[in-house]
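Kindly inspect this today.
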Amino acid sequence: MLDAAAHVMRTRGLARATTKEIAKEAGYSEAALYKHFRDKTDLFLGVLMERVPSNIHELLAALDERAGRGSVRETLEEVAAEAIDFYTDTFPIAASLFSEPALLAAHRTALQERNMGPNVVREKLAAYLAAEQRAGAIDRQANPAALAALLLGACLQSAFFTHFTDQPSPPPADLVEALLTDPTPRR
C-alpha cells in the first residue's frame, strides 16, 4: 500500500492524490486501505517514514546523544546531506499542498495532532545546537533556532532549485561552512 501511495503521491502530488486512486494502484479496496491508515495524512507519513530513502528521522532522533561529542561541523554536514536528500525526494509530493489552502490547513492540523511536521525537524536541530552552545562548541551570542532555520532553509531551497533548474545542490559542507563562518562586516 505504501509503495502505491508513494507512486501516486509522487506523480500527482499530495493534494491531487486520492485514497481511491491509491487503493486502486495497490490492488485493494478503499475500505482495506482504511483498515491500515486513518486518512491520507497517515499514508503520507507512512511514505515519508518508510519509502523516502533518507535517514533524516533516525539522525534527528540521535542528535540528543551526539551533543557534546564529536565534531559539530561533521554533524551539521550530515544533517544537511540528509535534509537535502529528504527535501529533494519529498518536494514533488508536498508542493501541491500549497495550491489548496483548505487542504494545507487540514494537513497542518493533522501533523500537529501527531506531533510531526517541519517544525519538529527545526526544533530538534535547534535543541542540538543549543546543547552544543551550552557545551561551549558554539558562540554564546548565536541563536540556535535561527541557525537551525538557516541551515534547513538552505537545504529546502537547494532541493527546490534542483527540481526547478535540474542543477545539483551545493555540497552540504559548503552550506555548513557558510553557516559557521563569521559574516561580520570587516568595515
About this structure: The first helix runs from residue 2 to 12. Residues 1-51 form a domain with the Arc Repressor Mutant, subunit A fold (CATH 1.10.10.60). The mean pLDDT is 89.
